[in-house]
Design brief:
about 180 residues, mainly beta, 11-stranded mixed sheet, 3-stranded antiparallel sheet, 1 helix
């Protein structure tokens, strides 16, 4: 599966390869990204749905400049549930202009409104929630979506619209007339 990154969650972790004397331990590192929300001025995961995406140091991911990965497409394992958590492994960075099958989308309540996760029809069947963090009115969600997929928030219904000329670009657009 080819996944284009449109955004990252707020929380990052890393795990170095075992063996402090291994000269390739940094290349063999793993980087994990998930959702988080501010609680009393500090960032916490507060998971309503547990999960994360994983990048390996050897797969082309640049942990020093994650923003440069936005709009890039990776070859990924299919999403899975392991030990009660949703997970996706981003294996290999593909050449620029590769066409994705799905998109990694991150939403925040401050930008789109509160997602209505769990309500009947809150999303199309092709939307997969990787992680969801919530605290009071604050919410951050990490989703795997196809172009044309929809999600419903307190503000209205959003559709993931793919750029016709550059398919590695896509954005959530509020549908006019859509109920919230």
């Amino acid at each position: 599966m080819r996944v284009c990154i449109l955004g990252f969650g707020s929380v990052w972790r890393r795990r170095w390869a075992k063996g402090s004397k291994d000269p390739r331990r940094f290349v063999r590192a793993a980087y994990y990204n998930t959702t988080g929300v501010m609680v009393n001025g500090k960032l916490h995961t507060r998971p309503a749905i547990k999960g994360h995406v994983r990048f390996n140091g050897a797969g082309g991911f640049d942990p020093n400049s994650p923003a440069r990965m936005i709009g890039r497409v990776f070859e990924c394992e299919d999403p899975c549930v392991w030990r009660g958590q949703n997970k996706i492994l981003f294996k290999t960075l593909l050449p620029r202009r590769a066409e994705p099958d799905r998109y990694l989308v991150v939403t925040r309540a401050a930008e789109l409104g509160h997602l209505r996760v769990g309500e009947l029809g809150w999303c199309t069947a092709d939307v997969w929630v990787i992680a969801l963090s919530e605290s009071h009115d604050d919410q951050e969600a990490m989703l795997l979506m196809v172009a044309g997929g929809t999600i419903r928030a307190s503000v209205g219904t959003y559709r993931l619209k793919q750029d016709a000329v550059a398919p590695w670009r896509a954005a959530l657009e509020l549908e006019l007339g859509g109920e919230g």
